[in-house]
Amino acid sequence: MKFKGFWYDGLMICLAAGFSAVFIAMTFLIEPRLAVAECIAFVIVCVVAVYRALSAKNRYKKFLIKTSKKLDFTDQKVLSSFSFPVAVCDGEGYITWCNNIFLNEISKGEIAQTDKISKYSDGAEVENFLNDEEISIFVDGRYYTVYGISYRSIGKNYRVLCYFDNTHLKTTELEYFKSRPHAVLIEMDNLDGSRSDLKDSELTEIRSRIEAILDEWSESYNSLLKKISEDRYLLVTEKKNFSLMVEEKFSVLEKVRNYEYKNIKVGATLSIGVSDGESIRACEKGARKALEMALGRGGDQVAIKTKDGYDYIGGVSKSAEKRNKVRSRIVGSALAELIKSSSNVIIMGHAYTDLDAVGSAVGLACAAESLGVPAYVVTDRKKTLASTLIEKLDGEEMGKMIIGQKEALAMLGRKSLLIVVDTHIESFVEFPEIYAEAETKVIIDHHRRASADINDAVIFHHDPGASSACEMVTELLQYINPDMSISKTVAEALLAGIMLDTKDFVIGTGVRTFEAAAYLKDKKADMISVKKLFANSLEVNKLRTRVISSAENFMDCAVSVVDFESPDVRIIAAQAADELLKVSGIKASFVMFENAGAVNISARSLGEINVQVIMESLGGGGHQTMAACQLKDYDITKANFALQGAINNFFENS
Length: 654
Prior knowledge:
By secondary structure, the protein is α/β, with parallel strands linked by helices. It contains 23 helices and 27 strands.
């Protein structure tokens, strides 16, 4: 048996002796008699110290023997005969006895009197080893399961610890988890619409080259890739390979995004859904849901299904506009049949409704009325950002379709239809009680899909490529009832919603956006009347200017704090965020204000920065260029710090 730690005492004795000799020599030069007395005392101390140092090992051996005698002869014989490591420690954790297997395997033949059991139990203290409980530890490259047995002897508490080596089982278990299957569904999106000027043969060549990129990428992770349709692929891999893909942030996304054909960037992107499961079938089913989530958020990203929802990688590209209106026709026809079979229609938007939510709701209400079914728009008149539109509807006797929560709940029946517009997140709807009571639900939204989406809707019409809910509704109106007559006021309400979300046709517009606007113009929508719906009071304009002037630049993002109270603070914050985008060098804007014990943040961007991703990291959501969040139990200082951290993380991960 080797004992370590005693050489340290010898070294300290030598150093002390050296310093004492020097001190005695100096004293001799001053007072010789005092130096002689010191020398005698020094010799006596040295003799005692040397004797104790030389006898330390023998004394500790006697200590272990004495301690082991506290066990009767039978106990020692039994414990020593065990074929696994055994140690006995006192109530403070100091090792008092151990068998030879423990010395050889656990302590490697070296042990010190001051060693505690925690040194050989992966940091676990003696208190952790209770009766009938096991602890898994990792010591010197091996896995052990340790069982503790308590007993009392001569008035002291002791614990017998038995170490069972299960390294083989643990490594097998780890290898099992590392080899768990993961299904990865990959869809090549935005190819047909990105380069319509290419010939079919050229598109075929581009697809084959992108497939080559996918093949090379999958082979680098020792994974199996199979094509299952023209633009969809299934990759089967193991967890250990998937972990490497995540570490490299699915590098294939950037490779495909930057792919050039004849020195021109193609603009193709990939949407990827990933899921694990107990079987390949379960993996594939989860991967399909994850792929739907990735596509619903605009594509060019990875959605990873987890126990708590979804994790996302990528999502830096703008949502691709889908030119095909077949889906709008199918949804419009299905929605018309659903409305006809309903006793009434209740239409609801998100909390603090804006022109897009109210405008799209009014358009759908008129469509339902044209089919002979009573329809109503439910909103809180005191908490809406579309008060100018509601006042206009009141003046033209259309305000009767605007009702409150109590009226809507009273009207809800078994055959009632609830249509939720401009949001697809259950917690964001204006009146959760109405949502909970409704049996039949329809969702119409353009915001990038979130994990907490509504999953019990009969029709889920979601298009992140659309500029606004009003654009989507304008398309649907032409298929719900082609013969319906849209009034000038309804056309202006829909056009106002489009102009709001596109910042007057600047952000997020596509061909279909202008087609919808042209359709509404054909229905006599007047731009001057629409602009009046955006008018504010002089006081609101002054406060908005105050917010803009207090903004600061953080990583090319304008961050401003509302330092006043106003009933119009939401309108002021949203409009200030829009105006800050007009400042040179600003790529995104964030305006914070306190309300009802929480800090609200309005976020806007010109598309280069995805504010939805930033707001999602803080518990909010929205669209790539327009998002928001609410931080409960935060003050402005703490919220500002959290926002800057989210912005910094976005740039680090993008």
